[in-house]
Each structure stands twice: as C-alpha cells, then as structure tokens.
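User: Could you go from structure to sequence for me? I need the amino acid at each position, not a summary. Structure tokens:
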C-alpha cells in the first residue's frame, strides 16, 4: 500500500495504519494494521455490507489519535446514488475503539448483513521491516459468546487481541457480523472495542493498551490541549511559521512514549512506523531541539537512559560499561534474542550526547538536582569515551560491531551500509571514526567540566577534562582537515586514511565547537554552497561525490534534523545569515508537507523540482524532524541561556516578517522574544 494512501493515528507506541476506507489488509512486508509495543495485533479489519466493500467519500484525521471515514456501499463511479451512508469513527489510546454508524436514506426499509472480517498475524515489527514473516509459534482464535479472541503462543510468550461489541454480534474465527433491519431515515450504530494483552501463566496478566473509550478520548483531548497551552505561543506574519510550529507541537505530543518502567512519564519515540520506541541518539537530539518549548521531555529521557546505561561487556548487545543504549524493543524477536534490541547499545554517539543534553538541560532549567543525581552515570559515560570507545588507541571515538550477525555495521547517525566512503566511492574497513562524533566528545568534555566545577565539587576533574578537550581539538584539526578541499573528512579508517568526501556532517562540527575559528568561514561557505545546499536544505553528501544520489538515504537526501543542527552550529560561529538561509529553505519545504516535515526528502536542486520530493519510505511523523522547526526557531531568534538569563539575538530570513515567541520557560521564569525579518527588496521593486 502506498504511503500516500494510508491514514495513520497514533498514541505513543500504539498506532493504526489503514486504507482511506478504514480497512486493513496487511501483507507481511507492509506496516499496516494495529501495532502496540512492536507487534501487530490486527492485520485484517475489513468492513462489508451485504457482501459489498465500501467506497470512501472522504476521511478526516481529526486529531493524531482519532479519525473518521465517510463511506458508501459499492465501488466508485462517476456518480454514486447511495441509499446508505456509513461513518466509521476510530480512536487510539493504547488499543483502539471503532464506532460504526449506518444511515438509511431510502424511502423503504432495508435488511442489512454487516460484517467485519478480523485477523491478526502477530508479526513482530522487525519481521515486517525485514520482509521476513517467519512465525515459530502457534496462531489461534477462540470464539466466545460475547467476544472473539485472537492469539499467538510461543512458549511463555503469549499475545492476544480481544474484540467485543456494544451490540449483540455473531462471532466466528474470522470476524463477526450483525443482522440489522433499518426503517426509512433510521440509523444504527455499534461500538467495537479492541484490546491488546500480554498473557502469562494463569491468564491475562498485562493489558498493553488503554482502550480509547469516550472518557479516555476526552482525557486525550484534554492532555493535548494542556500540552499546547503549556508550550510557548508563536505568532507570525508568515503563515508557514505558526502553522508548522503548531503541527510540530501536535506531532511531538503524538510521539510521546511511556515505557512500562516509567509509570506514565514520557519521552519522544523516534518515528512512525518503524521506530515507535525509545532510542538513545534520536530521543536525545529531539530533546535538544525542543528544550525551549517542552523541557520536561529532557528530564524523563535522561533518567530512563541513565537507568539503562550499560554495565557489563556483552558482545551480542554491543554493550560496554557506561555506554548509552541505541534502541529498546519489546516484541517477539527481542524476547527470544533473535535480534539484540533488549536493549541494544550499538550507537557510537548516544553516550557523549547524553552528557551534552544533561548540561544543556541544566543551563535552561536550573535543575541542579538532576545534574547531581546523574553524576555517576555522567562519569561512566566519560569513562566509556576514553577507555572503551578508543578502539585504535589514538584518542578518537571509533566503532566496530561485535555482534556480526544482527548488530549494526554503521553506528553513527548515518547508519546505512554505504553511508561512509572514500572519495573514489569505495568503503573503508572497520573500525571507523566519523567526524561529528569527535565533535560531540569534545563538547561533552567541556560541558562535563562545567558540571564538575560548579555542581560536583571536583575542580581537578574539571581541569583534566578541559585539557583533554583542548588536546582533542588540536589533534582533530590536524588529522581530519582535507587541505585541497578545505573541509573536514567524513571519517578516518583504522590506518588514519581520510574518507575525503564533502558531507553535511561537518556542519555538526560547528555546533560542537571543535572547528578552529580560522576554518569556520570555509565550512560555512560549504554549507550554503551549490554542492551541498539545494535551496531547500543541505544535502547529506555533496553533489559531485561518487556516491552522490539525490534520493540515496544518506548519500544526497536532505534531512531536516541534520539541517537544524547545522543552522545552530552556524549561529554559534557567528554566521547568522547562513543559518537563516538554511532555516528559510527547510521552513519553505515544510509547507509542502502541511507543516509535517518527513524524515528525509530528495536532494534535487530547488529550481529543478519546484517542490521537495519526499523520500519513498520516510518515517512521518518522525521525532527529530518534528523537532527541527523548533530548533530553527531558536536559531533564528538567537535564543541562548546565558548566566541565568535568556539572551535573544534575532536574525530572520529575508521576507520572514514579524515573529513573536511568548512565555519561553526556563530558570528565568517566562520570557518573550520578538523579531522582524528584513524586507525582500526585489519584491518591493516588482
């Protein structure tokens, strides 16, 4: 099923993806159906009336957690003279509930056979993603007088879907049906309740979802209204900014995920459909993006990542002491260790980024208690950088998977197989060290030095960290600079040979502060130069490189999150005009996606396509794409915490108009920020 023809509703880790009629007919390789905690609990959900499929007149995804479908019987024709209309209303709040309404518009009575075919393949999301549905357990269906139970059993691992109705129905192993008589102008309705369970010895132990009953839907609505009300208000003369900001806030609310161990506290899941779970890198970077707007996500994220920090050497999970997890999964393949995500630690950047987030969060919030609470975990993360990540013994962070069967090969953010290459297009051996991670390590050491001096009472440790950071910066600027291209190499191989391609990664170096000031201007020129900048944003790999492909996942596409950190880095080094140029391109692109930026879109020149071309399998919504407009707002307004106050130094793109951001929360209380963009003189001349 094409992504453009699917309707998606979600609430954290639970989501439903269906056709525009509301029907679900999942295949083993499509992420359609009802999913909860990495497993598909409904793979078939097809409504018929008198044996006929239904045709969609329209649909409305009212909120992120609910949708409504307006249908008539029969297939589409130029004119449908329907005597019946059908409304399907569904909401998700853990599991989901669907209300059917049938209206008889005929002048005579009708007898209807209403049927819902239901089935569940209990596919693990990894099995769908890898296009291998290899179930080793037993599927079953149990018909009861008032419900249908669909289940899957593999040893002690048991999952069930329970389907019941507010109206008496005839249940069978493949669904349920109603026989209905409707008088002229009469309507009939039924509410269908779908619950998901994990089952243990002695019966159902754990209800995985909270079904979206009427009062629970009101609770979701109230929660969303409260979420939006708590966030700063954004007013703008340019519609794209305010609309995109609101869309981002709503999508961020939808992506909030409450791990079972957190008792209702939430952190951002990475993205729908493949990554609706906890990620180290993605959750941390999203929290950094949204700190001025939703600071509470950072505290939860830091605490849960600290509680799951690596404590031993485990080759299967690529775990080391002090290492921050990459990904946590809850499905069948993780439970039976067919893949290592329980949790998996194969990320080279989450650990230094953990330290960066803790410091940045304190700068905004003044939450000294959390900095003190997580001192031990912070020190363990720094020890991982020095003792376990330096695989080549030369003071850099390297990666090489120890789990060669199911571990990740590339453990940086560009984690596709061919994302790291030499200029001739060939791939380097392992271990590999990518440039941006060295910047993260540099930043982490300096930030940890501040925390050690101000909050941990350890000035000697702070002095040592600052010396180590200075040495790393000097070493990095010597070993990674590509002299003839005047940029930093994407990576080094174990022999110190440079992967000498021009990439977006070097923009992250500006954000971390590891770039020597006399080289920063050249990096800024590359960021907005024609090889990298398309008019919409910065490509992941420059045009002209051997592996460049405008729709290559990490070899030429534009990633909004990537651009937001590049813009932040440009502001750090004083290149406000260049940062505004990137912000303008990304925010322009957002309007073509109704304010919801996808994971990635094509790196074609703006003048060639006239509109941004979405990457075919991009996640949407995706957390760090959702966070990108928020970080770009911060960057354009020049919002930075400074000695307990909020500094505001705006530089807006030409033609942006006035922007107001009201009630920005922080240790200073609440602050307002105002800015006005420069006039477009060309338009005035016209």
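Assistant: Here is the amino acid at each position, in order:
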């Amino acid at each position: 099923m094409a992504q453009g023809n699917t309707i998606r509703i979600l609430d954290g880790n639970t989501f439903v993806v269906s056709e525009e009629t509301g029907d679900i007919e999942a295949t083993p390789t499509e992420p359609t159906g009802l999913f909860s905690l990495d497993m598909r609990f409904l793979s078939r959900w097809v409504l018929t009336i008198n044996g006929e499929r239904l045709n969609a007149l329209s649909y409305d995804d009212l909120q992120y957690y609910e949708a409504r479908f307006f249908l008539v019987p029969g297939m589409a024709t130029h004119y449908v003279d329907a005597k019946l209309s059908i409304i399907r209303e569904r909401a998700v709040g853990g599991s989901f509930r669907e209300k059917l309404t049938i209206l008889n518009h005929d002048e005579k009575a009708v007898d209807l056979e209403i049927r819902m075919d239901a089935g569940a393949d209990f596919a693990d999301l990894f099995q769908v993603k890898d296009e291998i549905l290899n179930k080793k357990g037993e599927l079953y269906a149990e018909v009861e007088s008032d419900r249908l139970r669909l289940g899957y059993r593999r040893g002690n691992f048991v999952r069930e879907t329970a389907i019941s109705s507010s109206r008496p129905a005839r249940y069978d192993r493949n669904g349920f049906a109603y026989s209905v008589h409707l008088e002229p102008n009469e309507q009939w309705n039924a509410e269908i309740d779908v619950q998901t369970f994990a089952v243990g010895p002695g019966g159902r132990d754990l209800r995985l979802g909270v079904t979206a009953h009427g009062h629970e839907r009101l609770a979701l609505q109230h929660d969303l209204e409260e979420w939006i009300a708590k966030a700063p208000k954004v007013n703008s003369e340019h519609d794209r900014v305010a609309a995109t900001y609101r869309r981002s806030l709503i999508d961020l609310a939808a992506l909030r995920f409450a791990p079972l161990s957190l008792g209702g506290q939430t952190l951002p899941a990475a993205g729908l459909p493949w990554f609706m779970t906890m990620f180290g890198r993605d959750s941390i970077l999203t929290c950094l993006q949204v700190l001025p707007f939703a600071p509470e996500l950072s505290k939860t994220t830091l605490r849960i990542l600290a509680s799951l920090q690596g404590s031993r050497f485990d080759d299967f999970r690529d775990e080391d002491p002090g290492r921050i997890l990459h990904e946590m999964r809850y499905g069948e393949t993780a439970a039976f260790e067919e893949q290592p995500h329980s949790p998996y630690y194969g990320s080279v950047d989450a650990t230094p980024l953990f330290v960066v987030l803790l410091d940045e969060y304190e700068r905004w919030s003044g939450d000294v208690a959390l900095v003190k609470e997580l001192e031990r975990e912070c020190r363990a993360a720094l020890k991982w950088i020095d003792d376990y990540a330096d695989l080549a013994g030369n003071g850099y962070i390297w990666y090489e998977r120890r789990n060669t069967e199911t571990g990740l090969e590339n453990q940086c953010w560009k984690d596709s197989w061919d994302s790291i290459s030499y200029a001739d297009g060939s791939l380097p051996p392992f271990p590999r060290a990518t440039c941006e991670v060295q910047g993260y390590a540099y930043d982490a050491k300096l930030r940890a030095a501040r925390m050690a001096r101000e909050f941990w009472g350890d000035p000697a440790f702070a002095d040592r960290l600052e010396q180590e950071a200075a040495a790393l910066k000097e070493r990095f600027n010597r070993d990674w600079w590509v002299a003839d291209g005047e940029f930093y190499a994407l990576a080094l191989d174990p022999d110190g040979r440079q992967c000498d391609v021009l990439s977006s990664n070097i923009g992250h170096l500006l954000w971390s502060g590891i770039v020597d000031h006399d080289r920063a201007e050249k990096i800024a020129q590359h960021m907005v130069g024609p090889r990298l900048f398309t008019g919409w944003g910065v490509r992941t790999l420059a045009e002209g490189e051997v592996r460049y492909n405008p729709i290559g996942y990490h070899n030429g596409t534009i990633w909004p999150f990537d651009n937001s950190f590049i813009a932040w880095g440009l502001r750090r080094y004083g290149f406000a005009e260049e940062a505004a140029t990137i912000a303008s391109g990304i925010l322009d692109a957002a309007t073509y996606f109704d304010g919801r930026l996808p994971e990635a879109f094509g790196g074609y020149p703006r003048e060639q396509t006239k509109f941004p071309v979405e990457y075919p399998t991009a996640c949407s919504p995706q957390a760090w794409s959702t966070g990108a407009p928020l970080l770009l707002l911060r960057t354009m307004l020049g919002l930075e915490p400074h000695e307990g106050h909020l500094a505001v130094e705006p530089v807006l793109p030409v033609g942006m108009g006035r922007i107001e951001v009201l009630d920005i929360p922080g240790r200073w209380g609440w602050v307002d920020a105002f800015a006005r963009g420069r006039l477009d003189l060309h338009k005035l001349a016209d």
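One structural detail worth keeping in mind: The two ends are 46 Å apart (CA to CA).
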